Write the structure tokens for this entry.
Amino acid sequence: TDPGGIPDSWQHERQVRLRLKGQAPSERKKSTGDMRFCNKEEKYKPDRAHFCKPLNRNVLRMDHYCPWLSNCVGYYNHKYFFLFLFYSVISSGVAQYHFIQALSHGGLSSMQ
């Protein structure tokens, strides 16, 4: 699923400042104190937005790039990534339980 990106309305500083309504973003540039700007997408970046090289775009609330999903984990798909991990742990536990049960009841000799 789509991890979420920066909206096109964040391209111009005036529109961004109107959207924030005078509130200062919590993340600022270290040297000048201005809002963060992405040179690759030519948009202002909201807090916790980072550029993902494999997707070639900024991702809102980017957590990390997951090679198993071949996608970034971000704002819109964090729930699905958590469910993927949860079901993987559950299925691994069930498989381990059945494997131990099979070994305790004779191993491979009982399967033949």
In short: Helices lie at 13-20, 78-104. The radius of gyration is 23 Å. The first helix runs from residue 13 to 20.
